[in-house]
Amino acid sequence: DSFKQKENMLFLLQHFRGRKNRCYKLAVRSVRRAFVRSTKARREKKRFLRTLWITRIEAASLEHGLKYPAFISNLLKSQVELNRKVLADLAIYEPKTFKSLAALAQRRRQEGFLAALGDGKEPEGVFSRVVHHH
According to the lineage, what is the superkingdom (predicted)? Predict the structure, then answer.
């Protein structure tokens, strides 16, 4: 029913300003444009939130002496599988928990450095990056 369709369209535009919420021809254009914008905004919202989470995690990890890439990679090596949203929430609402995660990442990083330096524990015939001069 066309009357119901027009009524529905004008109902969607009650909050619009000017003639757009009264004239059907302008209303149709405005609704179409609004739906397209809302579709694009849903995509952009995901990008925006991810960058926001990364910024928050980066700021919190710098407080504990770790850069963001090192923090994330060492958490992954430690098999901590928390996503960025949860990490950002922990950084804001649970700073002690985040501090312990940062300490875990720092410890993992130190272990990696020690393994790279080589303590003379390499098996026979394995070359490390560090050359020992006798």
Answer: Eukaryota
Amino acid identity at 60? A
**Residue-by-residue DSSP string for 66-130:** --HHHHHHHHHHTT----HHHHHHHHHH-HHHHHHHHHHHHHHHHHHHHHHH--S-SPTT---SS
The structural domains of the chain, with segments of one domain joined by +, span: 2-117
Long-range contacts for 120-127 (Cβ within 8 Å, ≥24 apart)? Answer: none
Contact 24, 31 (CB under 8 A): no
Asked if 106 contacts 72 with a C-beta cutoff of 8 angstroms, the reply is no
Express each pLDDT in 19-77 by its tens digit: 888 888 888 898 899 999 999 999 999 999 999 999 999 999 999 999 999 999 999 98
pTM, rounded to two decimals: 0.71
Cβ atoms of residues 3 and 17 within 8 Å: no
Eight-state DSSP code of residue 16:
S
